[in-house]
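Customer ticket, subject: "Can you confirm the structure for Coronin?"

Message body: Hello, I'm evaluating your service for our small team and ran a test protein. I'd like someone to confirm that this is what the system normally returns, since I don't have a reference to compare against.
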Amino acid sequence: MPLLDPDSRLLVLAGKGESQLYCYEVAPQQPALSPVTQCLLESALRGVALVPRRALAVMGCEVLRVLQLSDTAIVPISYHVPRKAVEFHEDLFPDTAGCVPASDPHAWWAGSNQQVQRVSLHPACRPHPSFTSRLVPPAGPTPEEAQPAETPVGDADPSEGFSSPPSLLTSPSTPSSLGPSLSISSTSGIGTSPSQRSLQSLLGPSSKFRHAQGTILHRDSHITNLKGLNLTTPGESDGFCANWQRVAMPLLSSGGQVAVLELRKPGRLPDTVLPTLQNGAAVTDLAWDPFDPHHLAVAGEDARIRLWRVPPEGLEEVLTMPEAVLTGHTEKIYSLRFHPLAADVLASSSYDLTIRIWDLKAGAERLRLQGHRDQIFGLAWSSDGRQLATVCKDGHLRIYEPRGSPEPLQEGPGPEGARGARIVWVCDGHCLLVSGFDSRSERQLLLYSAEALASGPLAVLGLDVAPSTLLPSYDPDTRLVLLTGKGDTRVFLYELLPEAPFFLECNSFTSPDPHKGFILLPKTECDVREVEFARCLRLRQTSLEPVTFRLPRVRKEFFQDDVFPDTAVSWEPVLSAGAWLGGANGQPRLLSLQPPDMTPVSQAPREGPARRAPASALYLEEKSDQQKKEELLSAMVAKLGNRVDPLPQDSFEGVDEDEWGTWIRALVWEDLTCAEQQSSCATTTEPALWSPCSATREATAVRSPCTAMKSSPCSPQLEKAHAQQRRPNAAKKKKRTQKATCSMIPFL
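Agent reply: Thanks for trying us out. I re-ran your input and got the following:
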């Protein structure tokens, strides 16, 4: 879709379903198209429109603005030219065409070619009335609003009253930007303003699961080192099947081998050959009995259904003989579906265009449904087990009452595409959800009323373009459907409603690499303490990974009874095969998922509004610079004082201050004595016994001033004392500390 702005000569190219916008500059000479930029979109594009130049923020150098239509919002996309000066740039914004017509129809028919008068985009040349919109109510009545609008006269442009800054064109996906929160919404639990309620009235309600988070569990729970998987199963098959104990998957080796793995034993599988079930023919579909976790039904290309019984301790050896073999179909079998309430009742579809219902306990066919004119893409039992719905390649949906008639009870139009489809009962059995393709091979969802198939779908939702059929996994407790295809990396989540808007989009889950299959596990496998409302198994080429879907909640210490209603006990049969075939009906028993030590959040005491603590900057602003320095110094000292290992010098004993003082005084006195003796040696020849300044102890040395003292300094006793004072004890000299050294400074 080309969008050309003739004033700036900018061309925007966009395509439906794409996630990029391409912008080019058009020139009359070569090269005619010069690329400018590419814009990556957050969601797929459903439509695009160009905003008139009169609505641009010219002071912000906005030269172009387009509006993107996505699945849930209208998103503005602006193109700006960086300029330093905040002023009107005439080179970027020439005069543009106004909205006043140049001539009337009669003048145009008469041959008038008068052009529309151009107007200036300079802010000083046009008024700036406030932005008004029916979607955003005004804050309060103003005198101008009470007066009727005046009709533009002369060159005035009536469209100038709709000029708005870009901030007012905000995506509906971020309603918090439209105004302050004024009230509490019962559906979402978040604050909504009048403008948001106006948008919700247009876009519909939001799902409480819209913030769901899908996460792949830790590698310790994975089953890795899978080898030889058969990844080419028919499109009507899910590729593998699982219950709360085991998972079964076909292998690529000859003979239709099926590997059975224990979910309670995760880890790396050995490199040796695994024990398998030898089916004898290529596997087309397989399904676990919902009421017997050891019972597995496997359909083959030889039009036979083999029933296997896996030992309670797991498959430890190769099994070659099935428990029973069901024969009756004349062509390859498409799919298998167990009855949701009756034990030992199985439905199968085949290329012979029939659906057969089997009594497994008797090992015989009991019912046969007809009326299909082409390949049967899928079939599904209703939640009460009374009806069976099918989607066919001939473009029709059919609803059967198997115990009443072999012909369809209702028939209606199905998906237009013939590449594949799936069907599932939703909304407590009142609706049917079909995933298929349209005529352009776009994947879509169609919601039908189970009471009126002939009237067509209630709603149609287009998703994306991909080759694989979407496989729906429906949770009846939350009304959530998970949709993904083989080879996809994304899982779509939607909450389904029986009335408009029918589809409420939730956060999707994206995996780093494509998966080969995706299956929903029973509700009892969810961790309700972590608000985990769904747990699935994701099959990769070499591993099997569990994926959890959780809902972020604040008060997780309470049981979220709005997320976890009573669930049906799907592992206990309500009826036997004979009772159901005889016309009996029943309802499953319900079970509460609430742990005994948790209180429902609906009964939790209400919390008062939490007082928000002021920011730390407020405390810092109230303190002086000296207080900040003292706190910083205290923090540094406390950090240093927390050292576990002391410094080496902290263990030294040190030297007494008195001993240091005595040694220093003697040293200073000796230096003074030497100086006096050197000065007196030049004037006297009086003999002396000893001079401390003489290195050779000559007899002619001058008399020392120490002769006035009681004990002569030249005596051997004083000389020995001086020597000891000059040379302190070696051990004490090694143990000097910083404290003893610093004590000498004030003395000097």
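A couple of notes from the result: The CA atoms of residues 74 and 417 lie 29 Å apart. The longest strand covers residues 33-40. Feel free to reply with more questions.
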